[in-house]
Amino acid sequence: MNVTDAVASRHSIRAFLPQPVDNALLVELLRKAARAPSGGNVQPWRAFLLNGPSMARFREFLKTRTGREAPAYTIYPDSLKAPYRDSRFKVGEDMYARLGIPREDKAARLAWIARNFDFFGAPAAFFCFVDRQMGPPQWSDLGMFLQTFMLLAREAGLDTCAQEAWAMRAESVQAFTEADPDLLLFCGMAIGYRDPDAPVNALVSDREPLDVWLKAL
C-alpha cells in the first residue's frame, strides 16, 4: 500500500471484529512509528499497550471505576466558533444517522458515547501520554507520531480510532497503567480489524474544500 492509499483508506473505525491482533506486529508498528518527526528529537510520546489478557484485565478494572473523574484537559474550546463548530456538529449528526439514532433519543446517544470506553470493541489498543512539562510543540509531535502509527496500521491491514474521549477517564487509565504522575494522558488508540457490516464504519467525514483553508501566495 502506498502512502496515498493509506491516507485515503484511514478513517475512524467504531466497530471491530473480535479477530485477535498479533502483539509482535503492534510492537513493530509502534517501533516504526517512532520515526515520526519530533522537534529537537524530544520524542515526547509515552505509550502503554493493551492486547489479549491485558485488555481483558483493563475492561474488568473499568467496571470497578464508577465515580466521576476530572478530565485531563478540555478537548474542545468552550465557545467553538464557525466553521469549526459546524464541522463538529455535522460529523456527529452524520454518525447518528448511520446508527439510526434520532436526536431526541438521548439515552441511545449516551449509550453510544459510552462505547468509547470499550474501544468500540477493539481487541487491542494503546494509551498515549505526554510529560506534563511539555507544551504545544510537543503535543504536535504526538499528533505526528499517532498519524504515522495509523498509516502504518493501514499498510498492515489494520484499522484504528484515535480517541481523545479517554481524557475523560484519565484517572482510571493512570491507575491501571501505573503511569508516572508526571505523565498526562492524551488519548487512546483503538486497534483491530473493521467490521465490514457495521453501518457506522461507512461514515467518512467531510473535509473542507481547499479554498476555505488555503491561500496561495
Q: Can you walk through the features of this model?
A:
The chain contains 8 helices and 4 strands. The chain has 217 residues and is α+β, with helices and mostly antiparallel strands. It has a single domain, classed as NADH Oxidase, CATH 3.40.109. A 4-stranded antiparallel beta sheet has the order 1-2-4-3, sandwiched between helices. Helix 1 packs across helix 6 and helix 2 packs across helix 6.
Gist?
The chain is α+β, with helices and mostly antiparallel strands. The chain contains eight helices and four strands; from the N terminus they run ααβαααβαβαβα.
Any key phrases for this structure?
217 residues; alpha+beta; NADH Oxidase; 4-stranded antiparallel beta sheet; 8 helices; globular
Task: Report the oligomer.
Answer: single chain
Compute the number of helices.
8
Structural class given helices, strands, pairing? alpha+beta
The domain tally reads 1
H/E topology pattern: HHEHHHEHEHEH
| CATH architecture heading | 3-Layer(aba) Sandwich
Helix content: 25-40%
Low confidence ranges: none
Largest sheet: 4 strands, antiparallel
Provide the spatial order of strands within the biggest beta sheet: 1-2-4-3
Q: On the 0-100 scale, what is the average pLDDT?
A: 97
CATH fold category name: NADH Oxidase
CA distance, first residue to last residue = 33 Å
> How many DSSP E strands?
4
Which term fits the overall shape? globular
Our estimate of the beta-strand percent is 5-15%
